[in-house]
Specification:
The complex is a heterodimer. Chain A is an alpha+beta fold. Chain A has 6 helices and 5 strands, in the order H-H-E-H-E-E-H-E-E-H-H. The relative contact order of chain B is 0.12. Classes of the chains: A alpha+beta, B alpha/beta.
């Protein structure tokens, strides 16, 4: 049985902060409708706007950003397409293959392949994020114990297919860029909060 | 054992007298933390965390036995302090945010740290460098090891390899101030933990039967399968409850599956897990999991050819690596089209069972492996136990080590693994064909002579003779001597000589002639010298007797007589009798199918060669799913119908498709589960209702047990004597598989791939001057083979064996049913 709820003026009363918006009554007759349309169409506002464009065009004083040639800077904590970072000193991948990002991902779009490498370390052989499903929630970056997966600044996700993947090679900082000092740390979710040392009780060490 | 009542935390609990408090609590759903204890094994007392207070006294729950009326408290302020300190100690130098550990959250260290509520660390010690070690199939990371010694315990008490032990770790001493400030048990535990590590006995590689149970019981990620390491996280797996497909033990296990890789979303089995508290797997079960028939698609042409072949054929030959349901389909096909069903090993067991029932009056043997586990005197006849059914071997070892048991092992091939189980085990390495003598010996030693048929008693009496032997005895003898003493006369002050008689006891050796009973059966079975004395020692305080008989008897030329002797043993001795079926479902096939012995003119082979071959190995004319791609039931040694599930997908045709085309129709193969023959002991139960788990008290809730059917007997209990001249004294070769192999399916899995050959003991290799990999020609009355020689470190003596797992070696062709045959071996 369909049940229809009857709303009374529960919140709208003289004493409440709500009030009815003063809306002009809609024209009902054909003639009134024609008059309203004519009034709106032949007003001069259209030409005001056109004149501004024309004036600025003649002055060559253009303020719009020339996208995609130039891009606006985005906030440092903006969550765009992921990056995999390297360790600064050694250049090794920060990712240890723990799989927490894969586990925490609420849209289940991260997958990784791991194996034991020649140095008996866990190696991530392939890493992929399905951007068609990623909701850029930032959990992966937040859960990462090594600050290895972070959100970068690339926000273009246009693709010919719904399922559009980024793979490890796309995300990992290339070594030459690392050496050139062009890897940037991510200050967003998961990054160390300034002063966090003070809130940690240290485990005693015998040496 | 008596049922008693105890109180745990105010709850009244029923348990058995002498049961450990921990087990009583677990069975009743009361939680007591415990790390080092393993059900079915002896308490290790390494972790000390299972402290409880029993009648006001602090005891370890894993090691204290319940007494009637006991009042137990699981937490007191002192116990809480101990547990907290113990967990803090375990966390010293052991990270808990462990990124790459393969335990990945299934970690008892993490669990108990959280359970006990460790939030700060009080203790510290300098860490020592402990590099990871590769032991072959197992990888050991000492940095993660918490020295609970479960691996050592299970290896010794359950498996029987005793391949692991503790070694010194080399470390700083614990700071003296902790001794005063720490709870006592925590300090004692730390002291032990700080000193030792696990190491394989002798060398840096494991010398064992590679069951991998040590890695299974490891509470942390210290022991892991080398193959699995770092390939996956535990939480990613879907666990498919199943029954092991390789041998008749029918162990419960779960296949852990996950997508193969990023590119390939098809499921793959990454590892096998087991409920190690209640079931122990062998290496074949643990490592031989990926034997599936891969990448099969429906090939209608091959299917049509198969239908044509079935229309043409008069015989279906098959192996017992099929489910009960498939066996029933084959039986239905036989009923409809009159095919001959040929499966020689199942037929051998079927005949053995039917001969057995002519005396026992029931269709099935009475024992199972649970009774072997609980026995304190275990005998095995006619089976290469460790490779025929590893679980039967574990059961025997478990009985010997846990119940202070003793055992006898009758087999021509000397097995060092059996010898290492206990010092109370005697091997009879009798000549082949002397199995009947072993069965007679059982009747002679343990039979109720008053109740047994007189013909048997009389026959047994012919082996006895009285012999007069001279023995030396030490006798106490009293000797009286006269001694002259000088005594001071106090009155006169003069020394006087007084003679006095003194009696002394001296030991004297006397030769004595006594009459002893001599048992000729001992000599016929190559009993060790002085066996009758050993046996008297063995039998002291023994109550539960278990006998296991194996496939050597089913294929024995006098198999019917062997079966009747086995029935007599079950009837007139205290032994429970368990028969070891050859393959995964030999028992099921033997019960379901009417089997024939000879093939006709055109044969369909199912997993065996035929004119048209259906194969789950992928090498036949039409592909079939292997046992990890099928659902259905398997009948194991415990007479239990165990369900198994499909872990991996399969895209091809199955036997049910063929049967449906031939007019034996069912929608799914598992529709046949409820139709399994009730007359053979099966129950009309739907597949989907079959359970497959263990309860906390260790009760096996899996499938259902077959019901033994009553068989009418004619009261004739006569058995034939045996011919001692039939003993084969020439060189022989045996038909068996090496450790880790059962069938072509085990060899198909990537970790167990190997090529077969002629397996010989080290001693035999040396005495012949052969080297590993030498080529030999093996010739028997039925044919010859050319194979490589391979050393098997787990056998002794001079009987080599040929395997059946390698399809490239047609070793069965050399044998005439019986597993031993005369042989000449020449190096080429």
């Amino acid at each position: 049985m369909h049940h229809e709820e009857v709303f009374t003026d529960r919140n709208v009363s003289e004493h409440s902060a709500y009030y009815y918006v003063d809306i002009e009554t809609y024209p009902t007759t054909g003639w009134d409708k024609f008059k309203q349309a004519l009034k709106r169409a032949v007003r001069g506002e259209l030409f005001v706007g056109l004149w501004v464009v024309m004036r600025e065009m003649i002055k060559f004083d253009i303020h719009t950003v020339q996208y995609p040639k130039e891009k606006l800077p985005i906030g440092p904590r903006y969550r765009a397409v992921h990056k995999l970072l390297r360790l600064w000193e050694s250049g090794y991948e920060r990712c240890i293959g723990c799989g927490l990002c894969e586990k925490i991902c609420i849209s289940d779009c991260i997958r990784m392949d791991t194996r034991i490498d020649e140095n008996s370390r866990k190696e991530v052989t392939e890493y992929s994020i399905n951007l068609g499903r990623c909701i850029f929630c930032g959990y992966c970056a937040e859960v990462c114990p090594e600050l290895a997966i972070v959100h970068g600044g690339r926000y273009e996700n246009g693709s010919e297919q719904r399922a559009h993947f980024v793979i490890k090679d796309d995300m990992l900082t290339p070594l030459d860029l690392l050496k050139a000092g062009e890897q940037s740390e991510y200050p967003g979710f998961g990054a160390i909060i300034p002063g966090s040392d003070a809130s940690v009780k240290k485990t005693p060490l015998a040496y | 054992m008596n049922e008693i009542t105890i109180t745990i935390d105010g709850r009244t609990v029923q348990t058995q007298e002498g049961e450990y408090i921990l087990n009583a609590a677990r069975a009743n759903g009361i939680f007591i933390p415990a790390i080092c204890y393993l059900t079915r094994c002896s308490p290790t007392l390494a972790c000390r965390i299972c402290l409880v207070e029993a009648d006001g006294k602090q005891v370890y729950a894993c090691n204290a036995k319940a007494k009637a009326g006991m009042d137990i408290t699981t937490t007191t302020p002192n116990i809480v302090a101990e547990r907290r300190a113990i967990m803090e100690v375990y966390d010293v130098n052991h990270p808990l945010e462990c990124g790459v550990c393969d335990q990945s959250g299934e970690c008892e260290l993490q669990n108990y740290t959280l359970e006990v509520g460790v939030d700060t660390q009080t203790y510290s010690i300098k860490d020592t460098h402990k590099p990871a070690q590769n032991w072959g199939l197992i990888h050991y990371d000492p940095a993660l090891c918490i020295m609970c010694e479960r691996c050592i315990t299970v290896c010794k008490d359950m498996i029987g390899d005793a391949a692991l032990s503790t070694v010194a770790r080399g470390s700083d001493a614990i700071e003296a101030e902790f001794k005063e400030s720490m709870p006592k048990d925590a300090y004692a535990m730390w002291n032990k933990l700080n000193k030792s590590l696990i190491a394989p006995n002798g060398g840096d590689k494991l010398d064992c039967t590679d069951c991998g149970e040590c890695s299974s019981v490891c509470p942390v990620g210290a022991l892991v399968s080398s193959d699995y390491q770092y390939t996956s996280n535990a939480w990613e797996h879907k666990q498919i409850p199943a029954t092991c497909a390789h041998c008749s033990a029918g162990c419960q296990l779960s296949y852990d599956i996950k997508h193969t890789s990023i590119e390939n979303p098809e499921s793959k089995i990454y590892r096998v897990k087991n409920e190690w508290n209640y079931v122990s797997l062998c290496g074949a079960g643990r490592y031989g999991y990926d034997f599936e028939n891969r990448d099969v698609v429906k090939n209608p042409a091959a299917f049509d050819a198969a239908i044509a072949a079935f229309k043409k054929a008069d015989t279906i030959a098959f192996t017992s690596t099929i489910t009960n349901e498939e066996a029933l389909i084959l039986q239905r096909l036989k009923e409809k089209y009159g095919y001959r069903l040929v499966n020689n090993e199942a037929l051998a067991l079927k005949n053995f069972l039917s001969s057995y029932s002519t005396i026992s009056g029931k269709s099935l043997y009475g024992g199972d492996l649970k009774q072997v586990h609980e026995a304190d005197f275990v005998v095995s006849i006619g089976s290469a136990l460790k490779t025929d059914n590893p679980n039967a071997r574990f059961a025997m070892n478990n009985a010997l080590s846990m119940n202070k048991g003793a055992g006898l092992y009758f087999h021509p091939i000397n097995d060092p693994v059996i010898a290492d189980m206990s010092k109370n085990v005697t091997q009879f390495n009798h000549a082949p064909m002397m199995e009947e003598a072993a069965l007679y010996l059982m009747l002679d030693l343990f039979g109720d002579k008053a109740a047994m048929p007189s013909s048997v008693t009389e026959y047994l009496a012919t082996f006895h003779s009285t012999k007069t032997v001279t023995i030396e005895e030490t006798v106490d003898e009293k000797v009286t001597e006269t001694v002259v003493k000088k005594v001071l006369n106090e009155e006169t002050g003069v020394e006087e000589e007084v003679s006095e008689e003194v009696t002394k006891t001296i030991k004297k050796k006397v030769s004595k002639e006594v009459e002893v009973d001599e048992n000729a059966l001992f000599a016929l079975l190559n009993a060790p010298v002085g066996f009758s004395d050993t046996l008297t020692k063995y039998l002291a305080k023994k109550e539960n007797f278990a006998l296991m008989v194996g496939p050597d008897l089913y294929t024995h030329p006098n198999t019917a007589n062997c079966a009747r002797l086995v029935a007599l043993i079950e009837k007139y001795t205290a032994f429970s009798v368990t028969m070891i079926p050859n393959l995964s479902n030999t028992l099921g096939v033997a019960l379901i199918c009417d089997l024939d012995s000879e093939r006709g003119s055109y044969t369909i082979g199912y997993n065996t060669a035929g004119d048209f071959t259906l194969s789950a190995l992928g090498n036949g004319d039409l592909d079939m799913p292997s046992l990890n791609q099928q659902e259905g039931t398997l009948t194991g040694i415990d007479k239990r119908v165990n369900p198994t599930n499909a872990a991996l997908s399969y895209g091809g045709y199955i036997l049910n498709d063929i049967a449906s085309s031939l007019g034996v129709t069912a929608k799914f193969t598992v529709n046949y589960t409820a139709q399994l023959p009730v007359a053979a002991g099966f129950k009309a139960v739907e597949f989907d209702t079959l359970p497959n788990h263990y309860t906390n008290s260790g009760e096996e809730v899996r499938g259902y047990c077959l019901e033994a059917q009553a068989i009418a007997t004619n009261g004739d209990e006569s058995v034939k004597g045996f011919d001692s001249n039939a003993a084969i004294t020439d060189s022989v070769v045996y038909l068996a598989n090496p450790v880790l192999q059962f069938s072509p399916f085990t060899a198909a899995s990537h970790q167990l791939q190997e090529n077969g050959g002629l397996y010989v003991s080290k001693m035999f290799m040396e005495s012949n001057g052969w080297n590993e990999g030498d080529h030999v020609r093996v010739k028997t009355a039925r044919g010859e083979l050319s194979v490589n020689v391979i050393t098997d470190g787990k056998i002794a003596g001079d009987i080599p064996y040929l395997p059946t797992f390698d399809t490239a070696i047609n070793s069965e062709a050399l044998f005439d049913g019986y597993r031993f045959t005369c042989v000449s071996i020449q190096k080429v």
